[in-house]
């Protein structure tokens, strides 16, 4: 089963299509990268998935459920961007754990889960 599926997703800013009819899916347990030059729509795509931007056309499904009309906090998605999105006063580990702490994860499980995520990178 796909944990994430984008179908014909488009996002425009005025007449500029920042994301134009993109479709892809991610199976459970898979690691995926979005690669491309600056300005090609990677960040906009992630913002669409997380709900920080609204989809103009298409659908986004999490485990088969449409989330296009859900708010960011209802999607259970976390993002860490390369620049300017980390808390500079915190360690990398603290930045990774931040979302879990504020999403109600069981406190004793956070260090292990944080280490698991850091092992992936």
TrEMBL record:
Gene Ontology MF term list: ATP binding; ATP hydrolysis activity
Keyword GTP-binding attributed: no
Key word Cytoplasm present: no
Keywords: Transport
InterPro entries cross-referenced by the UniProt entry: ABC_SmlMolc_Importer, ABC_transporter-like_ATP-bd, P-loop_NTPase
Boundaries of every ABC transporter domain copy: 20-106
Listed PANTHER family: SPERMIDINE/PUTRESCINE IMPORT ATP-BINDING PROTEIN POTA, SPERMIDINE_PUTRESCINE IMPORT ATP-BINDING PROTEIN POTA
Protein name: ABC transporter domain-containing protein
Organism name: marine metagenome
């Amino acid at each position: 089963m796909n944990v994430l599926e984008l179908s014909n997703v488009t996002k425009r800013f005025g007449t500029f299509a920042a994301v134009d009819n993109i479709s892809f899916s991610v199976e459970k347990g898979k690691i995926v990268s979005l690669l491309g030059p600056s300005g090609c729509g990677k960040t906009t795509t992630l913002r669409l998935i997380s709900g920080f931007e609204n989809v103009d056309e298409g659908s986004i499904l999490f485990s088969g459920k449409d989330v296009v009309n859900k708010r960011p906090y209802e999607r259970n998605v976390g993002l860490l961007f390369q620049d300017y999105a980390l808390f500079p006063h915190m360690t990398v580990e603290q930045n990774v754990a931040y979302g879990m702490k504020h999403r109600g994860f069981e406190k004793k499980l956070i260090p292990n889960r944080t280490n698991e995520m850091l092992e992936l990178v």
